[in-house]
Amino acid sequence: MFDESDNVRKINTINRRLFIITAAKILVFFGLTSRLFSLQVKQNNKYLTLSDKNRIRESKLHPVRGEFRDYFGNIIAGNNEVYQLHIIPEQVEDFRYITLRLKNILNLSEKEFQKIHKKRKEIKAWETIVVSDNLTWEQFSKVNNYLHELAGVKTVLSISRIYPFNENYTHVLGYVSQANEKDIINNENIKEKFVPGIRVGKTGLEKTFENVLLGENDIQRFEVNAYGRKISQLNYQKGSKGQNLNLTLDTEIQKLCTELLKDKSGSICVMDIFSGEVIAMQSSPSFNPNLFLFGINQDDWQLIRNDPMKPLLNKTINGRYSPGSTIKPIVALSALENEIINPEFTVHCKGHKNPLELYGQTYHCWKKEGHGFVNLKEGMKQSCDTYFYEVSRRLGVDRLSETAKKFGLGKKVFGDLFENEKKGLVPNTIWKKNALGQSWVLGETIITGIGQGFIQSTPIQLCLMTAQIANGGYKIYPKILTNDDKKYKDKYKPLFKKSKNIKIIQKAMFSSTNELRGTSYKSRIDNPKYQFAGKTGTAQVKRITDKDRELDLKTFEIPYEERDHALYIAFGPYKNPRYATSIIIEHGGSGGSTAAPIAKKLFKLIIDRHKLRQSIKEKKYLDI
Amino acid sequence: MALNSFSHDLTLFQKIKNYDFVLLLSILILGLTSIFTMYSTDGGEILFHTKSHFIKFSILFPMMIVLSFVNIKYWHAGSYIFYIIILGLLVWVALYGVKASGSRRWIDLYFLNLQPSELMKIAVILCLAKFFHRVRTSSTNTFSSILFSLTIIIIPSILVITQPDLGTAILISLSGLIILWFSGLRIKYFIYSFLIFVTSLPFIISFLKPYQKLRILTFIDPERDPLGSGYQIIQSKIAVGSGGITGKGFLKGTQSYLDFLPEKHTDFIFTLFSEEFGFVGSVLLLLLYSIIIYRIIRAGLISRSFFSRLFCFGFSFAIFLYVATNISMVLGLLPTVGSPLPIMSYGGSSLLATMIGFSIVLSANINHRQNIS
């Protein structure tokens, strides 16, 4: 049927075409091999990483926050073990039944109950719902009783902040609470370490030192499948606890401050006049920071927020007050330094009937009958306004403001340590021109001389000012962290021209407290061990009208908001000064009657604890 | 022996002497590899896929050996009938087939679901090999023979496209066309039709179903929908790439073990193999396929009859085509078309078709001296 030649042609055609196809096949297989080479050998690392990313899920756990300790090593913000209650829905047979049981056992509100069910819809079945992050002991034991009936429910030990001294350190430390969106956006570190429910500092030092306190997360690495279910734990990387911070504060004194300020609105701060260590710093009223740990309830929050005494305000550093007569030591010092007056300079104070008159304005002394002829010492001792009107008139506001600023008024005491620390205000002619666009008038100098008018200071500034007078006129830098060893070039730089002038002021302050007719004479301590020197101040809240002057009402007869602020600054022991304090009681009446008695109680304890504090300090040096 | 009655010329001893044991061994090794790989896809347990694949292979492998003793001339004689039966099954599928995940491909035979389109891949080659066996060189390029062979190719292809199963249809067409190529159809026809195909590509694309268009778009840029249509190919590349030189080890492929790989039993089985055995394993597997392809070509080269020759060359190309398409697909070199990897992939029909093909090749080997009139 076929001839031979056609068969040969046919075979030749087939074989030739086979050759072409085989060449193509070899080419393709070579191509596949090189593709495999490129994926598996050249890009192996890339795909290996991708594969690990696929299968490995990291879950960060709560980092353990660093603690705060007081000067003596007592924990003032610590970590507490708390019991959380978790549900894992996939292990639960009947979710509704279990949650209803829990609702009964834990007395959950309808709202909380709904919240659990809402959460259930948002998560995958093998993820965890936190029903409660702080079971009370009662709840915990109750749940444990029923645990065998509640499959899928478990109690988990967790760590939470605790403030053992409740309201004593609220304003210094601030408080922690659940991180919100703002915290995460503002702080990279929080963002990086974020885990749901993480607590971060909201105010105070807790906020300032967030980054060192936060600590490192423990990290659990799981292998997961394509649906995100955990298959096995690969490793557990232990994080580290945040840094502990030691403060210079003394809990005993802090507690006394809280007690002394009870039911009052105001502030006390105490400072070591050489080291600048803040021994105590309390603002009143305070509140319990532990309330914020697990979300404060609305009633408590409204109570704190709407309190007219403003518990949320740290008055020590955020409160601005007219210094009143507590500015007088600076006025007198400035006048002495600028050689405007000498200690024997005398002014005749004639009382309310013959006030100082300048350009139609009258300037009264606080004492109706007048002080008669007063020199510097008497003027300070009895806090004669007329004397200081005259001194400041001669001195001028610019020279006064220079001295005041030198001693720490008008600028932040702690720098950036606290959020919102107020600078206060030390006015001068240039300031007024710039800020208000008006020329300075002499009358403003006169009232600045008794600490009224534009001048404003914070309690911590007054404390620093007092400390720098008490230590003989040398510059110090207040600190609240024990290991805050920042080097300042001008530390201990003399702030005076003649040290004699500082001595004069110290003596005048001594007489104000310890000599008859001194404004705080009643609050004196005669025992030289505790003896302190001070200066009262009474800052007017509203202008005193002639009518008020005629009525001459007692403090308790005036409406609360119109009562004067009571101030007192002091240092002691007088013979060998170590500590300075400033006390302010808002609307407390006069400094002499309200603020100075507090200093008396305070100094007793401060001096008593001095030895203990010294021994700790020596021990600290020995440890090094 | 009963088998002896099929052969009039050779004794059993001669048959065994002619037997291509290299090919047989290669198929056995590939089969065992596939069973172990299947064991790995089941997560290191003997579950449904392993069991089923093992049973199918252990039935079909001896079946292949038995069938290989059928004289090649009977295959030649039965080619058209075989083709017509498979075509009939395809029509049956179109009318009464079992529908699964959107396409109608299977006939429910109770003990297995038969996919006739897989068998059609072999039937087309058989049918055209028989046709061109008789055609003289001078009449290869006549209108009637081209029309006949194109009809043989196009009818089943259209039936398969309507299932819809574009991938298999393309493979059927290419398996048929390759016989045309070997038979000496003018090269210019191939070039012209290729040019027509390329120019009409936009037109063809407009006829594609949305999911098919999506596959092409995904092929061009898998990252456009990494969790949707691009997921398979991205995960597959990650699995292969992370395998490295020596692989993650048997049963240690995290991508497949942790369910990141879809279709790991069937079309993506190479991915799992490559992840666990790495570049070395993959190249060895390619080498095994190359040996098989070479042995098939060799069977064709030594055969006297054009039927054997055409069938072997056609079948070797088909095997090459399945392997190349499947591996290119999982390596992201081709759009995802459903094409199994011969013997390795899970699927009875594909295995059955491949084994029938091998048995014909082995038969051609035994009877290579035989002329078919």
Short structural summary:
Chain A is of the alpha+beta class and 624 residues long.
List keywords for this structure.
heterodimer; A: 624 residues; alpha+beta; Penicillin-binding protein 2a (Domain 2); Beta-lactamase; five-stranded mixed beta sheet; five-stranded antiparallel beta sheet; 24 helices; 19 strands; B: 373 residues; mainly alpha; disordered N terminus
Strand line-up across the major sheet of chain B: 1-2-3
CATH architecture of the largest domain in chain A: 3-Layer(aba) Sandwich
Strand percentage of chain B, roughly? under 5%
CATH class of the largest domain in chain A: Alpha Beta
Q: Number of DSSP strands of chain A?
A: 19
How many structural domains are formed by the residues of chain B?
1
Oligomer: heterodimer
Give the class of chain A from helix and strand content and strand pairing: alpha+beta
The CATH topology assignment of the largest domain in chain A is Beta-lactamase
The general outline of chain A is elongated
**Alpha plus pi helix count of chain B:** 15
Note the overall shape of chain B: globular
Mean pLDDT of chain B: 88
The major pleated sheet of chain B works out as: 3 strands, antiparallel
CATH superfamily assignment of the largest domain in chain A? Answer: DD-peptidase/beta-lactamase superfamily
For the secondary structure, the number of strands of chain B is: 3
Largest interface: A-B, 41 and 46 residues
Helix content percent band of chain B: 55-70%
Q: What is the H-and-E element order of chain B? A: HHHHEEEHHHHHHHHHHH
Helix content of chain A: 40-55%
Question: Structural class given helices, strands, pairing of chain B?
Answer: mainly alpha
